From TrEMBL:
It comes from the Bacteria. Keywords: Oxidoreductase. This is Flavin reductase family protein. The keyword Oxidoreductase applies. InterPro entries: Flavin_Rdtase-like_dom, NADH-dep_flavin_reductase, Split_barrel_FMN-bd. Residues 19-162 form the Flavin reductase like domain. SMART domains: Flavin_Reduct (SM00903). Gene3D superfamilies: Electron Transport, Fmn-binding Protein, Chain A.
């Protein structure tokens, strides 16, 4: 691979293009603060450790969830399934809308939890680290639920895809 001498804008465009072609599960990250509910869609979520069980969530500092999450004690990572596409599309609409008007939302540990999510992982916020335009929130598990019959909602190249229908899915025969 040659090392092209790219200017900053070209480098950012190349990075955005590369990241658009990484399939990612879609998450609705939620919290409660001051009697209000907050949430955003995210793809930058990852398990961190099994001992203690924890995960990390990367949130842009300009996102509506950032300030409430920075002061909240708990948050929930709702792993969206194919059946939650309506929730994802509603979350992407204008911030002025009630993001929780679509979907079967319940409350647990003071945070909104999507009852029909593939999985819901409730965490206690234990650390926050700023990097670039984002903050990395680390949460330690306090509760989790999972539905065996759900396929994750996946985002790839600016659209939702159904990975259960992907060609070549399954084990190769030898």
């Amino acid at each position: 691979m040659t090392e092209p001498n790219q200017n900053r804008e070209d480098l950012l465009d190349s990075f955005r293009s590369a990241m658009r072609h990484v399939a990612a599960t879609v998450y609705a990250v939620t919290t409660g603060h001051g009697g209000d509910r907050f949430g955003i869609l995210a793809t930058a979520v990852s398990s961190l450790s099994f001992d203690p069980p924890s995960l990390l969530v990367c949130v842009n500092r300009t996102a509506s969830l950032h300030a409430p999450l920075a002061t909240a004690d708990t948050f929930c990572v709702n792993v969206l399934g194919l059946g939650n596409r309506d929730v994802a599309e509603h979350f992407m609409k204008d911030r002025a809308l009630d993001r929780f008007a679509v979907g079967a939302w319940e409350e647990a540990y003071g945070v909104p939890v999507l009852a029909t999510a593939q999985s819901s992982i409730i965490c206690r916020r234990v650390h926050c680290h700023d990097f670039g335009t984002h903050s990395i929130f680390i949460g330690e598990l306090i509760a989790a639920t999972h539905r065996e019959d759900a396929t994750p909602l996946t985002y790839y190249d600016r659209q939702y895809i159904d990975i259960s229908q992907a060609p070549g899915r399954g084990c190769a025969q030898g």
